[in-house]
Each structure stands twice: as structure tokens, then as C-alpha cells.
């Protein structure tokens, strides 16, 4: 419904959402455990088959977006490990490889993925949710933070390799569930009794992936971060965006995360 505009860039692909559930149930929303829980079983196999993904962690669960044209490859890749369903009129209908075999081609060997630079600003972030019925109470503040509080970043900032801080605010509303990521200073502007977080109330640090806009054709970007963190059993909260990817990790583990990712960079050279 949005009118065409010279100020709006739209990717040329249509994307579908994969939601990974355990035993038929969504994981509880008490703690953002994030992308590492599905790194080995979903993200790494898709990267090996040259399928590009967008990752969206929310307070409640995690979603993987794949391009509609890649769906046959996605089904082929994951059917051996997962029961796969598509949603039709609110009902879950089983999907098999046979359903998606028409026109399927064997994948070509994927080129070695590019190891993108990783930046780690000093900003501390919160992962929060809010009850939908209390949303009107913070709507004015949300609009101010989203659209008016921050000036556009300078072009020079995009290539900076030593960021002291970063402007980042994420708001998602998915099937009635609200998820918010904001820096700790911005959180102080909101009524504390309306914003809900995990029982530990922990703060998160960010690693930003990419020295320039990543685009959507390259695969293995999420796996580059998720696999070493999964091997070390470190939680991560991952958000892909149009220009860069962002992974949030618990504040107390940031030094170990930077070390792990630096080792991967060095081994890839």
C-alpha cells in the first residue's frame, strides 16, 4: 500500500518466513537465546547449499527469511532433519520433498564465503517486550525515538572500524507480540514499569557485520557469526537489516566473542 517513492529502496525478491519450533511448540519468551540454538541445524546447511537468509530474532522467538525462489532448495536441504509444514488458512499442512521437486536442480558447489569485518561499539543494549494493551501509553515516545531523535549517520561512520557507539533501535510487531531492542540510555526515557525483560535483566553488546552494505545475494553471513558462537555455547540475538547484520551477545561475554570471531578471521586469510 506504500506509494512509490525515490526515497524508498525495495529488494527485488519476495521472502518467506521459516519459524523453527521444538516438539510443535514455540520456545518460551523468558530469555532471548537467539540464533545459536538453530545455527548448526538450519543456518549452516542452508549456507552450504548457497541459500541466502535474513535472520530476525525477537524477544519471543527467532525467524529465518528465505527468498521465495529458493524454497525448493530450502525444503530439499532441511527435509531430512525437520518435519516441514506450510500454513494454509491458519492450518499447518505437511510438506515433502516430492511437493517441491518440480524444476529442482542439484546445487552447484558454493564459493568460499567472504569473511566480513566485525565491529563492536561500546553501546549497551536491552532486549525488551511490552504488553500490547499498554502500547498506547508509550506510542508517542516510540514515534519520537524511531523518527525524530536521531540525525542520519554520516557517510564516514559507515566505514569506521572503531565505533565508540552506534545508533540502533529495533521494533517488531509479529502476530500481536512486540519485541524491542534499544540502547540502555534510550530505555531510561520510557516508563520502567511498562517495559518487560528477562528475569536476569541482562545487558547486551553488539557486533556489527560488514564494512559496506551486504546485499541479499551472498550466503553464509549469518553462519559466519552463528557457528563459532554455537560451538562456544554463547547466546546471540541476531537481526539482519537492509545494509548490515547485527548480533547481540551478553555483555559479560563480549571479549570472548571478539576473540572467537578474530580467530575465524585470521584462519580464513
Automatic annotation (TrEMBL):
<feature type="domain" description="Cytosolic arginine sensor for mTORC1 subunit 1/2 ACT-like">
    <location>
        <begin position="116"/>
        <end position="199"/>
    </location>
</feature>
<feature type="domain" description="CASTOR ACT">
    <location>
        <begin position="201"/>
        <end position="262"/>
    </location>
</feature>
<keyword id="KW-0597">Phosphoprotein</keyword>
<comment type="function">
    <text>Functions as an intracellular arginine sensor within the amino acid-sensing branch of the TORC1 signaling pathway. As a homodimer or a heterodimer with CASTOR2, binds and inhibits the GATOR subcomplex GATOR2 and thereby mTORC1. Binding of arginine to CASTOR1 allosterically disrupts the interaction of CASTOR1-containing dimers with GATOR2 which can in turn activate mTORC1 and the TORC1 signaling pathway.</text>
</comment>
<comment type="subunit">
    <text>Forms homodimers and heterodimers with CASTOR2. Interacts with the GATOR2 complex which is composed of MIOS, SEC13, SEH1L, WDR24 and WDR59; the interaction is negatively regulated by arginine. Interacts with TM4SF5; the interaction is positively regulated by leucine and is negatively regulated by arginine.</text>
</comment>
<dbReference type="GO" id="GO:0042802">
    <property type="term" value="F:identical protein binding"/>
</dbReference>
<dbReference type="InterPro" id="IPR026249">
    <property type="entry name" value="CASTOR_fam"/>
</dbReference>
<dbReference type="InterPro" id="IPR049479">
    <property type="entry name" value="CASTOR1_ACT-like"/>
</dbReference>
<comment type="similarity">
    <text>Belongs to the GATS family.</text>
</comment>
<dbReference type="InterPro" id="IPR027795">
    <property type="entry name" value="CASTOR_ACT_dom"/>
</dbReference>
<dbReference type="InterPro" id="IPR051719">
    <property type="entry name" value="CASTOR_mTORC1"/>
</dbReference>
<keyword id="KW-0832">Ubl conjugation</keyword>
<dbReference type="GO" id="GO:0005829">
    <property type="term" value="C:cytosol"/>
</dbReference>
<dbReference type="InterPro" id="IPR045865">
    <property type="entry name" value="ACT-like_dom_sf"/>
</dbReference>
<dbReference type="Pfam" id="PF13840">
    <property type="entry name" value="ACT_7"/>
</dbReference>
<dbReference type="GO" id="GO:0034618">
    <property type="term" value="F:arginine binding"/>
</dbReference>
<protein>
    <recommendedName>
        <fullName>Cytosolic arginine sensor for mTORC1 subunit 1</fullName>
    </recommendedName>
</protein>
<feature type="domain" description="CASTOR ACT">
    <location>
        <begin position="11"/>
        <end position="78"/>
    </location>
</feature>
<dbReference type="Pfam" id="PF21389">
    <property type="entry name" value="CASTOR1_ACT-like"/>
</dbReference>
<dbReference type="GO" id="GO:1904262">
    <property type="term" value="P:negative regulation of TORC1 signaling"/>
</dbReference>
<keyword id="KW-0963">Cytoplasm</keyword>
Amino acid at each position: 500500500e506504500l506509494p512509490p517513492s525515490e526515497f524508498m529502496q525495495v529488494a527485488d525478491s519476495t521472502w518467506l518466513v521459516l519459524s523453527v519450533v521444538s516438539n510443535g511448540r514455540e520456545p518460551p519468551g523468558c530469555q532471548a537465546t537467539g540464533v545459536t540454538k538453530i545455527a548448526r541445524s538450519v543456518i549452516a546447511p542452508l549456507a552450504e547449499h548457497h541459500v541466502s537468509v535474513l535472520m530476525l530474532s525477537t524477544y519471543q522467538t527467532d525467524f529465518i527469511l528465505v527468498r521465495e525462489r529458493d524454497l525448493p532448495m530450502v525444503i530439499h536441504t532441511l527435509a531430512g532433519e525437520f518435519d516441514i509444514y506450510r500454513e494454509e488458512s491458519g492450518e499447518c499442512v505437511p510438506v515433502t520433498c516430492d511437493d517441491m521437486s518440480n524444476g529442482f536442480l542439484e546445487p552447484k558447489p558454493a564459493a568460499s564465503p567472504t569473511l566480513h569485518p566485525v565491529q563492536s561499539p561500546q553501546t549497551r543494549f536491552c532486549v525488551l517486550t511490552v504488553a500490547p494493551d499498554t502500547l498506547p501509553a508509550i506510542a508517542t515516545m516510540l514515534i519520537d525515538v524511531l523518527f525524530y531523535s536521531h540525525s542520519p549517520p554520516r557517510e564516514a561512520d559507515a566505514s569506521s572500524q572503531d565505533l565508540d557507539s552506534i545508533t540502533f533501535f529495533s521494533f517488531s510487531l509479529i502476530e500481536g507480540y512486540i519485541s524491542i531492542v534499544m540502547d540502555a540510555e534510550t530505555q531510561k526515557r520510557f516508563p520502567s514499569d511498562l517495559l518487560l525483560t528477562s528475569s536476569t535483566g541482562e545487558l547486551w553488546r553488539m557486533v556489527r557485520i560488514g564494512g559496506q552494505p551486504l546485499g541479499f545475494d551472498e550466503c553464509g553471513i549469518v553462519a559466519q557469526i552463528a557457528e563459532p558462537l554455537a560451538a562456544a555455547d554463547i547466546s546471540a540475538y541476531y537481526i539482519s537489516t537492509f545494509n548490515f547484520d547485527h548480533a547481540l551477545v551478553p555483555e559479560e561475554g563480549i571479549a570472548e566473542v571478539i576473540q572467537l570471531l578474530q580467530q575465524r578471521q585470521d584462519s580464513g586469510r
